[in-house]
Amino acid sequence: MKYFLPFLFLVSIISCSVQKERTGNELNHNGSKNDTIRIANDSLEYEIIIFEPGFHSWLATQRPRGYYNLNYLEQRNRLFVISYNQRVLNSFQFDPKLYPEQINYEYNKDYGYEVNYLLYHYFVYFQEKYRQKLR
C-alpha cells in the first residue's frame, strides 16, 4: 500500500469455521500493538474483522451486549453503511484514507447479533475518533 491508513476495517462475507478470537500482540507499522477483533461463525458464513488501535479498550466501556435489540442495530447499521459507502464513492469530498473501500452489508441477510453489535459500535467509534458524522 502506498499510504499508511490510520485504520483498516473490513467486513467480509465468506465461508469460515466457527471462531471467536482477539489478537493484539502483533506490532503495527508505527511500533504500537494492533487491536484486532475478529468474529466468525460458520452457521451464518459471515465475519467481521476490525483492525483499529484502541477499539477493543473503547468497546469495553460501551453498553453491554444485549442492551440494544437486534432490530435497532440492523436499522442503524443500514443507515451507517449507506452513508459510509457514499463517502467511499465521493473521494473528492471525503478523505479516501478514512473511507478506503465499501462495506459489503446486504440488508436482507441475517448477520446475527454479534456481527451487528460490533459493526454498530465500530461506526460509533469511527465517528468519535475521526470526528465524522454518519447518518
Structural account:
This protein has 135 residues and is an alpha+beta fold. It has one domain. The protein contains 3 helices and 4 strands. It has helices at 55-59, 70-89, 112-130, and strands at 8-12, 19-23, 36-41, 46-51. It has a 4-stranded antiparallel β-sheet with strand order 1-4-3-2, with helices on one face. A hairpin with a 4-residue loop joins strand 3 and strand 4 (46-51). The model is unreliable at 1-32 (pLDDT under 50). This is DUF6146 family protein. Pfam families: DUF6146. InterPro entries: DUF6146 (IPR046144).
Short description:
This protein has 135 residues and is α+β, with helices and mostly antiparallel strands.
What topology emerges from the helices and strands here?
Blueprint: E1 8-12, E2 19-23, E3 36-41, E4 46-51, H1 55-59, H2 70-89, H3 112-130
Antiparallel strand pairs: 1-4, 2-3, 3-4
Helix pairs in contact: 2-3
